[in-house]
Write the structure tokens for this entry.
Amino acid sequence: MKRLFRQFMRLSLKKEFIVLSVVILFLTAFSTVGSDKIDSRDNFYEELNSKEHQVKNQQLDDLLSNAYEKGRFNGKVVYSEKGTIIYNRQFGYENFKTRKPLSDTSVFQMASTSKPFTAIAILHLNYQGKINIDDNVNAYLPDFPYPEITVKQLLQHRSGLPDYTIIADRYWDKRKTMHNADITPLLKKRKAGLTFTPGSKFRYCNTNYAYLALIVEKVSKKSFDKYMQSEIFDKIGMRHTFIYSHDKRNNKQAVTGYSYSKKRGFYERPCDFLDGVVGDKDLYSTVNDLFLFDQALYNDKFIDPKMMELAFTPAEPFDETHNRDYGLGFRLKIENGQEIAYHHGWWKGFRTYYIHDYSNNRTLIWLNNRSDVHITDYMAKIMNMSIDEESSSF
């Protein structure tokens, strides 16, 4: 854990490289006119002037191009080491009907990869002394129907709360949008009990993070979307990131989410009544903005290192038989000697992945607007790529 808080030094682009990148982008775009194959690349934040980076870039491109040609995904990928982006490319389309290609500013639904952001908001408030995560939830939400649950147990998915999505799917009038404030009345009306004694075990549950968003609103006296915008997105410089509002319909700039079946082919997955609930999902962002967020986590100008140490502390100690856990908003694991903080998400046509190997300061961000894809094997190959300068191979 001692290596968690390496400072990120932002390197400026050379003037010559900016000009060269513009020329390359223009030629690439021109070469794909009239072709269904998408082969556009984004500007890198730094020239790949080392042999090691160039080799890895080519290896990644070979792997992912092959995967895309086989129809394994549609999306955008960023891979970085020590704050330097080594690979940054998109494959496919924002919309399959219009065949508009994905771009550097394509905005994806983050699904459950929204949860680290909600956790960081809570940790900010904790550091400011406005929240104590060891307090009971009732200290902030008096009508919360389970007095024995703490804020920390919400963060760790150790509360035992029932899943609001399952109850709402059965009992909610789907013609009406559901919001965070509707969860407590629904749980009370259905007399939904806890699934286990709080703190006794882990069970992933979206209800935890829906309530954390309510706590942010109660304490900050701002709507969740406005708080996240002013205190997280704006401070990091995430210009293309926002919390979706089902009422405002502010996701017009987002890419379209799809699923696939042999019977229907590709079909759109529109937002539904559950998209009024935020905190557990409904953050929209780009890979570049997520990279800025990733780097900010290790910059004490954005968040106190002690808060990140809390976030990356497993609820149960790692040992030889227990190498996976959940911290505060982040899944944690040790694999092949790598200490990894990560999160993934699935929701209505999207699959998202954020992985940070903090023992080697490497990051992989992979956003898909196809929820039928399964790319675990490809991600494993990337994260198992050698980090030795003399031997970078899969």
Notes: The radius of gyration is 21 Å. Residues 1-46, 388-393 have pLDDT under 50 and may be disordered. Residues 344 and 353 are 4 Å apart (CA to CA).
